[in-house]
User: Fold these one by one.
Assistant:
Number 1:
Amino acid sequence: IIVDAIFGIGLNRPPADWVKRIIADLNTSDAFTLAVDIPSGLFMERAVEDREAVIQADYVLSFQSPKLVFFLPETGVFLNQWEVLDIGLDRTFLSQTETDFGLVGKNEVLAGYRPRPKFSHKGTYGHALVIGGSYGKMGAVVLAAQAALKAGSGLVSTYVPQCGYTIVQTAFPEGMTLTDTGERKLTDIDYALEPQGVGIGIGMGTDKATVNAFSNFLSKNKTPMVIDADAINILAKNKALLKEMPKGTVLTPHPKELQRLIGSWKDDFGKLKKARSFSKKYDCVLVIKGAHTLIVYQGKGYINVTGNPGMATAGSGDVLTGILTGLMAQGYPPLQATIFGVYLHGRAGDIQVEHTGYQALTASVIIEGIGPAFLDLFAPPEKQEVVANKEE
Amino acid sequence: IIVDAIFGIGLNRPPADWVKRIIADLNTSDAFTLAVDIPSGLFMERAVEDREAVIQADYVLSFQSPKLVFFLPETGVFLNQWEVLDIGLDRTFLSQTETDFGLVGKNEVLAGYRPRPKFSHKGTYGHALVIGGSYGKMGAVVLAAQAALKAGSGLVSTYVPQCGYTIVQTAFPEGMTLTDTGERKLTDIDYALEPQGVGIGIGMGTDKATVNAFSNFLSKNKTPMVIDADAINILAKNKALLKEMPKGTVLTPHPKELQRLIGSWKDDFGKLKKARSFSKKYDCVLVIKGAHTLIVYQGKGYINVTGNPGMATAGSGDVLTGILTGLMAQGYPPLQATIFGVYLHGRAGDIQVEHTGYQALTASVIIEGIGPAFLDLFAPPEKQEVVANKEE
Amino acid sequence: IIVDAIFGIGLNRPPADWVKRIIADLNTSDAFTLAVDIPSGLFMERAVEDREAVIQADYVLSFQSPKLVFFLPETGVFLNQWEVLDIGLDRTFLSQTETDFGLVGKNEVLAGYRPRPKFSHKGTYGHALVIGGSYGKMGAVVLAAQAALKAGSGLVSTYVPQCGYTIVQTAFPEGMTLTDTGERKLTDIDYALEPQGVGIGIGMGTDKATVNAFSNFLSKNKTPMVIDADAINILAKNKALLKEMPKGTVLTPHPKELQRLIGSWKDDFGKLKKARSFSKKYDCVLVIKGAHTLIVYQGKGYINVTGNPGMATAGSGDVLTGILTGLMAQGYPPLQATIFGVYLHGRAGDIQVEHTGYQALTASVIIEGIGPAFLDLFAPPEKQEVVANKEE
Amino acid sequence: IIVDAIFGIGLNRPPADWVKRIIADLNTSDAFTLAVDIPSGLFMERAVEDREAVIQADYVLSFQSPKLVFFLPETGVFLNQWEVLDIGLDRTFLSQTETDFGLVGKNEVLAGYRPRPKFSHKGTYGHALVIGGSYGKMGAVVLAAQAALKAGSGLVSTYVPQCGYTIVQTAFPEGMTLTDTGERKLTDIDYALEPQGVGIGIGMGTDKATVNAFSNFLSKNKTPMVIDADAINILAKNKALLKEMPKGTVLTPHPKELQRLIGSWKDDFGKLKKARSFSKKYDCVLVIKGAHTLIVYQGKGYINVTGNPGMATAGSGDVLTGILTGLMAQGYPPLQATIFGVYLHGRAGDIQVEHTGYQALTASVIIEGIGPAFLDLFAPPEKQEVVANKEE
């Protein structure tokens, strides 16, 4: 067992050559490596420049609070497991040194939870509308609509090209289906409903007619929105459209879509900086999906603690979009809806993966976990567990 | 803890100004408020005029029997939880002062239950027909048909526009599908079947051709009927049709549909009065859907005790219509079918919500609860529980 | 409690007037009536002429073996519950007096069970073909095909009109779908497959073109067959076709179809006589569906003990047809397949009804019970239970 | 009880006439036959010539390691149950006499398992493409696609004729559907995706246009492939195409397809010899499906220990093809993917058969067992059990 506790290193200096040689030796050794506070070579507020010069820790005992770098993909990989010890630092000092990033767990989510009064009715819980689909990509709409309903939306409708009619009506009996004039793609997004939340973009494609339809829709829509998938790609190629988004619009790009949207970055810290700046500029909630999904809004960041590698599966993002749309339809403000929805989505996956393992966790199975994830909110708290970054 | 026991107030006088100021203070206080018999400011037989002058009670210990106002939306909201104590009033006196409204629980339902003899066959349990659907709204028919079958109907058929053919046949293999001559809407409701119960109106739309088809159908149909959704809207706009309904027809409007049907009301008591008068005039069973669904027929009211806020979800009403149609097809008289069906629907939701939470309780999930709700009828009785009007 | 033990009466004489008056009085009494051996007024080998002159027994303690009349609809209704006591009659005598009707329970079924050798493959278990369906009645084919597969057939294909294509392919991914040249009905039953078992008639209709198609099919088909539903109706109207059936063809009429096939009867005993004569004449296995399904072949009758009133539900018969077809495809001879299949079908329903109650037991749910019914064959035996003829 | 321990016989000589007569007598006896090491008359390295001259053993206690003949269909049938005893042979000697065939169990599979790192995403787990289907045979594609997803592939798409569009999109919402220009069959396999694993051939038919399409596809495809069903039949008739397969292509023929591919064989040993030679010649992984599926590659054989006779059911092979495609998409090399996939497929069936029995184990049910089979990999090991070759 090796104990890595070369304190000063972690803070801001790259290690000296002789230290780097020691680190390289340790990393090739078979010994169990225990890092104290933070693995040597990692910085608390900067990216790693020399990845050879960081201890690959089997276990990290960290002090007082977890560090941002534990949650970022480029640096999180240096920790296999970690745990935080309360070492009794002065709490007043801590609250003054609060960073811009907060962890989102069950307590944070419960604070914003809206209980259901008895004398409520279907209308109390809003109307969610999922707009998307194109020839061969109708399943995404089905998954998002099912998720919006399971997230508690009173009504859920779908707006799809005509080739999706029988598919969506068969697979989603609870919802109305509206069809575009286009047979195989959206060409004119126009409806008489008054939804309280709109999710748009999944499976939609980026055909020119669809770009026009989306553009026209953006210019007139006032309903709170979640924008995902191809609608993000359209925005990325037509940046002028970004200004048409209602304040508080939620964007849920996956890594490549994010890059198209905000441009390339040098490292995780660069990505965060660009994301915060983008979010401020367009007054939008930006969801950076990943092992620890990060939500950025109004200069603050919210790190989600739920989820697992089994959720890297087709349609998982469509389910998230559906959950967020369903919560917004119920009246949750965009940021609260996003924080809550990202948490629920991950928790649903965590509950279901116990029955399926990582590989067999599918989007449909995650949807079935949404109910249990709601119930879990009010279950007695489990004791805090060690966070594992690697499948054992 | 505050004890609200200003007895006289609850009966018939609005509280004096100084009492009202006390009430306002109490309601803004964080203290736990326990009301005795009835919260001060609520009346037993009248609506509340000044909502500022009513105690918002955390808990009500009521005497002998619950009050009608506990179950009505405008007044039920003043009670978070309540419980009834037997204080030994003279039972003869009680039976003479019986009100026009009775509670419907398991005992009331069991009294009318029709057991299944061993030497029965499919025909013994009747043929239910669900008529409805239009382009984009076929799921409602699927849900109602599934519910009618689960409610015990021997056969269940559907009558839909042609655009529903593949959808309904795929999702509901147990039933026959009859199609209208209309492609996207009902235009001529005509069939050779002889059902024992008809449910009509769900997802049907109010196109002029459909109005005509419904009107012609009403003029010739003699089968016991449940009328719901758009068929109610058509009746509301064509009051002359109301006289064509067979005696004992069941109408299941949601609040807005009810208003279109019987006109606006000043308060819950006004609504009840109008509903009773409407029900008498047209000899129909009127179902006032809500947290406590209220059934009105022949001058009497029946208050259902099952159900929960999770049932405020898309398609939940279609499931109710299906259950009622399925029970009527089995030969339950309209009132008994309605009392039983409303109870079962709520109980199915109560059983399922334990597994899903309020938000993820969907219409399809309620349907799966119908079987367990039947089994529950014969399960050993649970002890009476406190009634919670608010999610904890 | 009344004990009915007027022994002599049960055997062959109608009761005297004064006995009849006593019986009438007893039947209107609220007392619990216990009948010994057989309720007074029932005959062991004849139908009841005067239904007023039979004790309605709450409980029957019978001797040595149950009587045929306990299982027939007209007479079974006089027994609410019954149980058989072994009173030590000479077994040699019993075996010599064996009647033409035997009970079929788990032991009888296990005797003919064909175990699965390890080194078997898909082909070992045959190919079942379900032929049927017409516009609006495709679900029957789906249910039968699913049941045939769950009954163990290695391959299951369907043959349907073209309007069933998408429906069957979507709902039954395990099977191939062959389509007729007819759009909405079968017009020419012609295929290149070589199935080992064919189930025909469900949802098929009796259109003239279909009658021709069925007639031509009968004249050339050599595969063991189950004939059900509309195919039976066609046979009933075209008796000449009956001679075209391969030896050992299984017919599964419901009561009305049976009547069309063999003509009216005076009472249950008359029905049995006609059924046995019909079965002999055409060398076919005749299934008389009911609370206790009765199978007639080569002069013998087999009374099934499984099943419950919840199975009087749409599609339940299609499931039975599928099971029988699936067993015949596996090589079970027609009589064995029928005895086994009828038992399994009822046992599947008995297992599932525990979870659904009578009303919510649907055909799809029965299909899910087929696997557990197979497993139950090898489960430790339960002790013999009282047979209840009425829902408690 | 008979103990068969005529040691010398098993090794290489056919038994003398008087021994053969004894064997025949023993086989007709009702006594329980216990064979020691190997049933008399079986050879360790040769096929049986005279099947009358082999002891049919109820139980075999074998020494040190199981024999290849225990797993082959022609010889495995002589053992009802068997177990291996460690008799302390010199392990050095054993390792030098290692045969070309190894058993594949949980340990062998776990050695190649690829754990899921936390900071992974959908793209990490590849894109599987299932190509197949024709009019009436679309279900095979649905089953394979579902299985590929459950096996852990990040994305799963399907490529089908146009008549499969609504079917696949409805039944498989997680995946994209690409359609061929052909309405009822594949005529031109052409797509813009870049999958990491392709499964091809299921339900595809062997129409001339499809043969051309497949041939053209083979000549340009570089993606690792699983070839099954009709694609194997096409290869068998067009041997020149075999050279177009990428190295390491996996072929999964059932017995008849295997024969068409490699020609007839005299006995199981002849089959193995031809299979190894074929596999070497075309550098492909050859899967010989059976009770113990045998995988042949680069001169070695791998005998799978999971699976049961219930898996001889329609679509079971499509599920295997899907699993293999899904594993290859995740980056498992062809041989490892095949060994792992064959094991998982059998284990999924073994887990599910506990709930369904052999007969009701269907392909859809096997798919639901894939998740539990993954979880089972990491469950505490069960003690080695007796292997049963016959259903008890």
Number 2:
Amino acid sequence: MTCPLCDEVGGVPVWRDEKLRVIRVDDTPAFPAFYRVVWNAHVAEFSELPAEDRHHVMDTVAAVERVLRQKLAPTKINLAALGNMVPHLHWHVIARFAEDSHFPAPVWAPAQREAPAALLKRLAEALPALDAAIAGALNG
Amino acid sequence: MTCPLCDEVGGVPVWRDEKLRVIRVDDTPAFPAFYRVVWNAHVAEFSELPAEDRHHVMDTVAAVERVLRQKLAPTKINLAALGNMVPHLHWHVIARFAEDSHFPAPVWAPAQREAPAALLKRLAEALPALDAAIAGALNG
């Protein structure tokens, strides 16, 4: 059994410390502003972590969320730790917009429309500054 | 504008304190072991809460998760805070099983099969003890 989040970074590296890493997901074209906070060690369930580590991972999730809110003013942030396919703890942090391809449904539901090109362009252009702002917030 | 999580409890009441409540979701027949941790005040985004409150809500999520793992031995726990339809902070805590209607897809994706009657029966029978164990864990 191999685990893709043990074997690979899993996306565009944004920030990391000894315990966890933040990556930008680059394989979901309809959702460019999609980050993951990945626990570095192979742990399946959130509640397997001691309180201090749980607080650290959620403080990191909140910091990523805060940057997305400040820089993009999304309609909503979606957070999730599912791991049905890859049972290695990772938190999805996704900026959602009223006009995106799935809203108000979750990103895992069927698409309701095509994502508007103007939204995708705005988000794509924002990504370098977003990555930098997330790293800055976590270094700060 | 009214908010259903301001106006109503939102499910079967399991536990509450000043800040939050735990409810069992009773409107998703395919997923009987489905709880929500609802922030009592109307807050839309997780990162709007100060650190102490974020830790409290996630400690509660972890406690619910731990009881589900201990009592049901699910294949995986799924956690999510979405709120696209009801932007009032609530965490979904869902016990998932390899044979459930959607696994390994998220519960918001199309169903892949009917949920086996034996699984639904086992979970339905476990609910009163689950509710009590969650309340006990949070009181403890």
Number 3:
Amino acid sequence: MAEFSLIARIAARAGRRDDVVLGIGDDAALLRVPAGRLLVAAQDTLNSGVHFPLDTPAAAIGWKALAVNLSDLAAMAAEPAWCLLSLSLPADDAGWVDGFMDGFTALAAQHRVALVGGDTTRGPLSVSIAVHGFVAPGDALCRRGAQVGDEIWITGTPGDAAAALQRRQVGQPVEPALQQRLDRPQPRVAAGRELRGLASACIDVSDGVLADLGHLLEASGIGAELDLARLPVSTALARTVDGPARWELQLAGGDDYELCFTAPAARKADVQAALQRADTPGAVIGRIVAGSGCAVRQPDGRPWQPPRRGYQHFDPALVASDRDRPSA
Amino acid sequence: MAEFSLIARIAARAGRRDDVVLGIGDDAALLRVPAGRLLVAAQDTLNSGVHFPLDTPAAAIGWKALAVNLSDLAAMAAEPAWCLLSLSLPADDAGWVDGFMDGFTALAAQHRVALVGGDTTRGPLSVSIAVHGFVAPGDALCRRGAQVGDEIWITGTPGDAAAALQRRQVGQPVEPALQQRLDRPQPRVAAGRELRGLASACIDVSDGVLADLGHLLEASGIGAELDLARLPVSTALARTVDGPARWELQLAGGDDYELCFTAPAARKADVQAALQRADTPGAVIGRIVAGSGCAVRQPDGRPWQPPRRGYQHFDPALVASDRDRPSA
């Protein structure tokens, strides 16, 4: 099977939308953005051995490659619409592509995302997706905008994916609930959209809560305090690890794809109602304060210094301890 | 230097446009598509050792990665606007990134393309670009639409890039004019736009004239005849190779990034005027005929069977003779 058979295999499962004037099969896609809406666009690449372990099932890679991109749209409060997919494969493997598309289309269907173009090439296994959505000009959530008096919220239960990865790497059994969170993160698209007009700033958590909240604080020119006692913990994670080791996974683990956002304390009930409409759990984990940086408090009130703040590609400290990452 | 320093290095040279509401530095870009225009979107990936030889200068990779994507917009008659860039690098190398951005921004500035997002990750060297432009709904050129009575045109002089690659791979000196065509293809954006309302069908030639014309014929449900005597030949290529070896490079070589398009024979003078306005050379190389497939005639009128029709990833015949490609 050659390149064009692979493309046909993928195109057959591209999904349909009325605003796709011309999809896969020409030099470019022709797409209709609704009047009065901004285009929202992001692109993220997953490389084998860096963003997922080498033996990750194809379906999990297909799901996750789309999920990490939809998570970026969610953080902007955008409505997903289309994506482009570049797939680099070491060999022509129809079974792998079918598995990949099983995961990809399962998530694409949930969010009505149509695949409208891209390419398949030979190369080390890598998936690059560009995702597109819409938002009304005043509705987009950004990293800047957090203010003193805002509370800091997190959706879901951070740390689960990082715990799954860590246990896997030391050869210990992984609870299915944690493995699911590593392989099939659920992008918080509904929550992002419900938070329009409520959240003052928002970011998706991919490199760890502290690292990504750090970006939000920097963009907003402000500081924060986090309370470890308020961190929401999944049942599976609580069974697996506790204390500082858990805090580190939850605040600096990465791969969460949750939303971290700020909102005025006075709007707390509105935020709770918005998250309920989105069927998304969420909790206040701290507050915005004057200054810069993020202080973390232990349950007894003492300050806590995390040993690392999150994942960075090319970070010398992390490259030295690459045993922590699937790329090792 | 870590990931965020690399991003800052790239972001400093992103380019500006009034329709970029929010560019690099948030979870996604916010972009304004002009009223009454369709969004045109394409994504192409270049992998080291597959799409360019391992020792290709960083600036040539930066230029070419954008050029192959702009060539897709050109074929749709679109006006380029924005792109997203995913860069996978084996190591943090500021000098390489600066060189890459030199080539990238040189071409981006020519076409007023702003870089609005993407990511940098660790992995085997790979560049994936998603490019975006606009076109009025009735103006887009597609692969379908060629009709009996149309002439087949090609811009530029196909075969130059393939000749450069071939000579390089057998260790022979490469004329600078041919090397330039391999490293810095010039996407035919102006020609595509001038051909709106004139060309009946259009495709960009990346895998070789026969392969890509084949896609156009298939999409149009029609056949073609090509005359080898009418193929435009660059001075440098004519000095380098002749006869069937030249024909093969010109029709099945790949990496041309020229436009192959069809137009009614009665509009020949209009097409010539359009190409002149675009400052783009072009020539008639054949005609659309009833049926399917493409017949090629030698200068003496006899039929010619090319030994291969173009480049396909995962083509077993090509993988077996991979010595022809930089990936070997």
